[in-house]
Amino acid sequence: MELKGDLVVLRPLAAADVPRLSELSRQPGFSRWWPGLEEAELLALAAGRGDAVAFAVVHDGEVIGLAQFYEEDDEEYRHAGIDLGLGDAWQGQGLGTDAVRTLARHLVHERGHHRLVIDPAADNARAIRCYEKVGFRRVGTLREYERGTDGTWHDGLLMDLLAHELT
Q1: 41-62 confidence digits (pLDDT tens)
Q2: CA atoms of 86 and 93, how far apart (whole Å)
Q3: pLDDT band at 148, cuts 50/70/90?
Q4: Which of 25, 117, 162, 163 has a 20 to 30 Å separation from 104 between CA atoms?
Q5: In what order do the strands lie in the sheet with 115-118?
Q6: pLDDT at 80
Q7: Structural domains in the chain (count)
């Protein structure tokens, strides 16, 4: 099912999107925050293998990035998480905000989630601003959360959004 935003369309990831996303994922602004996204992983996502549901982010008919979500279905802890990566040329134009808002609305209104989470790198100011525009709030720092390409550990930021906070 396609999800239509104001600026972007999220359509289910297809194997035909993999070469384009592989190319985008090697760009510095994408790979800095989502390193090591391999073609095999993209093909698995396109085939529906794994825990995430993936979408190609499309703007003006062109694939510009990848969005995905995962769900925790334990009724005591039910929520969904979101990931987003855009090619360098499409960052800073509101397209990421529209993609996140579109996916968040789907997760709240169609999938019935009351809470969403996202966990950008603590120093990814652009992503944090994007998520805050959608209504996500800072919950806390995830200390030494992820290993960077330089081999050192870096902090993450846990953010969440309750359904009634969605803008």
Answers
A1: 999 999 999 899 999 999 999 9
A2: 11
A3: confident
A4: 25
A5: 3-4, 9-12, 53-59, 62-72, 79-86, 115-118, 153-162, 137-147
A6: 98
A7: 1
What is the dihedral sign for C-alpha 40, 46, 47, 52? positive
pLDDT tens for residues 92-123?
999 999 999 999 999 999 999 999 999 999 99
CATH number of the structural domain spanning residue 72:
3.40.630.30
CA distance 105 to 3: 9
Q: Which residues pair with 147 in a beta bridge?
A: 153
Cβ neighbours for 108, distance < 8 A, ≥ 6 positions apart = 114, 116, 163, 166
Helix (H) or strand (E) holding 23: helix 18-25
Please name which of 88, 153, 24 lies closest in space to residue 96, comparing C-alpha atoms. Answer: 88
Note whether 129 and 149 are within 8 A (CB): no
Instruction: Give the position of tokens 């239509």.
Output: 4
The range of the structural domain enclosing residue 41 comes to 3-165
Q: What is the pLDDT of residues 6-47, one digit of tens each?
A: 999 999 999 999 999 999 999 999 999 999 899 999 999 999
Helix (H, G, I), strand (E, B), or coil: what is residue 29?
A: helix
